[in-house]
TrEMBL record, chains B, C:
Species this protein is from: Haloglomus irregulare
Catalytic activity: N(6)-[(R)-dihydrolipoyl]-L-lysyl-[protein] + NAD(+) = N(6)-[(R)-lipoyl]-L-lysyl-[protein] + NADH + H(+)
Cofactor dependency: FAD
Family of the protein in this entry: Belongs to the class-I pyridine nucleotide-disulfide oxidoreductase family.
Name of this chain's protein: Dihydrolipoyl dehydrogenase
Classification via PROSITE patterns: PYRIDINE_REDOX_1
Other information: The active site is a redox-active disulfide bond.
Gene responsible for this protein: lpdA
Record text on cofactor binding: Binds 1 FAD per subunit.
Length: 65, 473, 473
């Protein structure tokens, strides 16, 4: 995965509302790779859409442990 | 009357109508999926018939009686008597209302209900043997199957004989309070029932192999509950394994052994064995599907609740820990959505868990240790219930609310609550965790006075060094 | 001993140690502001001494006794007796614990405490007359002042005489339950106390000018509480104004009149008048500050709690509706932060409110009508408590949870709850509103089973047309 993905996936967690996580799945975006612009780095729906438009990494691409 | 073998087809076959199965079936039907739900026993599964609901009904009765009997401090004098047969009948009414409701909701949503035991005949076909003589059987061909067959009490070290050694199921159907109850296992079911029976007047002894009550919880959490149980007269025997029991003229004699093999004898009138639950995978001929279980007996699934077979899903107790009704339902919804073609997944960040002891325990997300292990540098905030105005007016000021957050971003990571209504209070933290809320978000939310939920706010403020009703550390 | 007039200086002078004043003082001191708190009567103000806390203590005692006396359905037989003098003593202990705690917390945080009545002498100076003979007085010069003098019961139509006509304060200090209690006013204080005294065995009549109980709430919300009160034996007289009362050989005779002037006589042993509360602005010589009150008697403030004077703030009941303790505290925190130089403001989106009747009511944010008025096209979701497993196991399945959201964006806008523990359940919705959560966010949060909070989730799912435990409309 992209290295900036690790910022939002700290501690194995992505901080994003369920609605944003669902949107990511719908748009085929791996939310763990989306840089968050919300408070503390939270991933917003807008971030997910932006990632989708810029051809973000497709969902299902697991980040290796 | 259907006699002999008829054959029908369905998009989604659901096996088991517990909170995993019936929720999945209703959700799938709502999404337009042709759904058939097979249940061998009673709608609502363990949860409604012999688990969550019956236990909470007894707890209410025990609390009502015990609460009034111990309220002299607040000027209430009462000497309540409990008629357990009536309590049981009331519990049965509650259960019937709810199981009847489940059946009605399934029908109203268009779920095809089939009563009987489902056994897979092939990868796409199941046979349902109807109950009772001459009821015949039925074959159902399916596109997708969802296995939600739940779990059953572990029958070890003792077998259940329905008379001297009971499982929780048996204990929740008693018509009288035993004089001396020996409980094997201090997990959540053992502790809920020990507390309940102690309040109802039984002499309760709890035998637990490990060295604490509710060993799944942090020490300072479980300690509050153990102390309260001890105050109710519950005697704990930690580090003892139940070995054998026998009848004597004066009741049962139970022998336990510690790790050095040192034996102790306990007298009892009844044994409640609550040492855990095993997934049920032996009722539906899994072999015909070619599915295998893991070393713990669970059916492995992915985050869409899919098994090793693309068209077969499994949810609830049979699909792994935590074995909780709401986890079963949450998975059931996901599986139904996936079958309906939605991009659903079990991506909830946390599954709360509650123990309905006195006081209640509820937790969600990470403990401080777990947060550290996960790579966070956690900050912790705590509010003792004895500083809560609401807890004092409830005459129930023990326990605390604790919150765990990431030190850097202040994202809420978890909460541990041991307090009255803990099971309700945890809902706010669960939402905070799912939303990616920061401590400040919870602290800035105005909380109603006087409520226990204010303690949640205070714990959060404490984590930020700005608690008003406790000293900040 | 201080005799005569001494003079000190302080950064922030706080007048009144209720939940507005003491929270502001502690918060300011924590921020390093030199803070002096003046209280004429008792730490904790109305809330701790004669409001929220005492009322909730009596409610607990009444519920404990009444609950046990009415639990035959669940097999509990009891005939409790309530010793009101003891109940009162217990209430006093609770109050003392909490007021003592407030005093300790103030000291521990470095707040200077001054006991006495504060009267402004000039724009920067206050005189505090100490209580008691020969205690002298004290002048304090201040940079900033915060007025948190609260409110008092409206003495109309009747004067309070402390014997026949009591305010809530008097009712919360009774040593015996009156046989026949006439309550004037069916607002939240009147309804909480009517319910409590009815449970304690009084014959309660409620006289209300308007045509419903709790007229500030939607009809279907208040109806649940009125019905329950009626089932407890409370008699409602709507559309009647209390006109006069007199003593007779057999008790009090109270005369009411309807809008046509038609009079009715009611017999009673005691009158509790709870028709509202007036802001307290006449105790501190506001004139010396040159501050004026608005037509309702409140001190006008902006969103930083600042009055017309740049260096004077006002919070809590004296600063306007809603007159609630948590609103006072929330404002107190903001004012303290502003004085400390923080960019704070009262920008919370919603202030929850609870009524501790049977069942409880709690609301937060907008009703559907309010949402429509505000320009939203609201969607509404509802879950009746009789479909809640937890409510059934509590033998308390009346009421409902309702959620209001924007139809377009699904942002949560409000919730109306009438249900057991409504006051606790509302916390989750308050957080949802503050976070800008969408219905989906709440629906996707796993809720513990079996809890009342599941009803909140179901209401939210119902609003989305995907409820499992009710039929979607
Ligand atoms: C005493 C007790 C208290 C509990 N308290 C709580 C609590 O407070 N909160 C909580 O979250 N959880 C609680 N639990 C756990 C909870 O009951 C389970 O987690 C939950 O019931 C699991 O749901 P499920 O749908 O996976 O399975 P189950 O509820 O076990 O349902 C499985 C169903 O499948 C049926 N079945 C099995 N095989 C077949 C077959 N071949 N054909 C047709 N039907 C079949 C069974 O008859 C059963 O009805 C408690 C459990 C117990 C025992
Ligand atoms: C019966 C009852 C039940 C209630 N229940 C609830 C409830 O459940 N939840 C809720 O949110 N609210 C409840 N309230 C309302 C709540 O009590 C008030 O909203 C809250 O106390 C307001 O806080 P405050 O700090 O503004 O003022 P107060 O609490 O009224 O405190 C004002 C303080 O200022 C002092 N003071 C006044 N003048 C001077 C002076 N010149 N010098 C020095 N000191 C002075 C007074 O002695 C008093 O201590 C209830 C009220 C009543 C009466």
């Amino acid at each position: 995965g992209e290295s900036d993905g690790e910022v939002s996936a700290k501690g194995g967690r992505v901080f994003a509302a369920p609605s944003a996580r669902r949107l990511a799945r719908e748009l085929g975006v791996d939310i763990e790779t989306v840089p968050g612009s919300g408070p503390g780095g939270r991933v917003t729906e807008g971030d997910v859409r932006a990632a989708a438009e810029s051809g973000g990494e497709p969902a299902g691409t697991e980040t290796a442990d | 009357m259907v006699v002999g073998d008829i054959s029908t087809g369905t998009d989604l076959l659901v096996v088991g109508a517990g909170p995993g199965g019936y929720v999945a079936a209703i959700r799938a039907a709502q999404q337009g999926v042709d759904t058939t739900l097979v249940e061998a026993d009673a709608y609502g599964g363990t949860c409604l018939n012999e688990g969550c609901i019956p236990s909470k009904a007894y707890i209410t009765a025990a609390d009502t009686a015990h609460g009034a009997a111990n309220a002299e401090a607040m000027g209430v004098h009462a000497d309540p008597a409990v008629d357990m047969a009536r309590t049981r009948a009331w519990k049965d009414e509650v259960v019937d209302t709810l199981t009847g409701g489940v059946e009605k909701l399934c029908k109203a949503n268009g779920v095809n209900l089939v009563e009987g035991r489902a056994e897979f005949a092939s990868e796409r076909k199941v046979r349902v043997a109807h109950q009772g003589e001459g009821q015949g059987s039925e074959s159902v061909e399916f596109e997708h199957a969802l296995i939600a067959t739940g779990s059953r009490p572990v029958a070890a070290p003792f077998d259940f004989d329905g008379e001297h050694v009971l499982s929780s199921t048996g204990a929740l159907a008693l018509d009288a309070v035993p004089d001396r109850l020996l409980v094997v296992g201090a997990g959540y079911i053992g502790m809920e029932l020990s507390t309940t029976f102690a309040k109802l007047g039984a002499d309760v002894t709890v035998v637990e192999l490990l060295d604490s009550a509710l060993p799944a919880y942090e020490d300072d959490v479980s300690r509050v509950v153990r102390k309260r149980a001890e105050a109710l007269g519950v005697e704990f025997r930690f580090g003892e394994a139940a070995e054998s029991w026998q009848e004597t003229p004066t009741g049962l004699r139970v022998v336990t052994a510690d790790e050095d093999g040192e034996e102790t004898e306990h007298a009892a009138d009844l044994i409640l064995q609550a040492v855990g639950r095993d997934p049920v995978t032996d009722t539906m001929n899994l072999e015909a599907l070619g599915l295998e279980t893991d070393e713990d007996g669970f059916i492995p699934t992915d985050d869409q609740c899919r098994t090793a077979l693309d068209h077969v899903f499994a949810v609830g107790d049979v699909a792994g820990e935590p074995m909780l009704a709401h986890k079963a339902s949450a998975e059931g919804e996901v599986a139904a959505d996936v079958v309906a073609g939605e991009p659903a997944a079990c991506d909830y960040q946390a599954i709360p868990a509650a123990v309905f002891t006195d006081p209640e325990i509820a937790t969600v997300g990470m403990t401080a240790d777990e947060a550290t292990e996960a790579g966070f540098e956690p900050v912790v905030g705590q509010m003792p219930m004895n500083a809560s105005g609401r807890a004092l007016t409830l005459d129930d000021p023990e326990g605390f609310v604790r919150v765990v957050a990431d030190g850097e971003t202040e994202f809420v990571l978890g909460a541990q609550i041991v307090a009255p209504e803990a099971s309700e209070l945890v809902a706010e933290f669960a939402l905070a965790i799912e939303m990616g809320a920061q401590l400040e978000d919870v602290a800035s939310t105005v909380h109603t006075h006087p409520t226990l939920a204010e303690a949640s706010m205070e714990a959060v403020m404490n984590a930020r060094g700005e608690a008003v009703h406790t000293l900040n550390r």
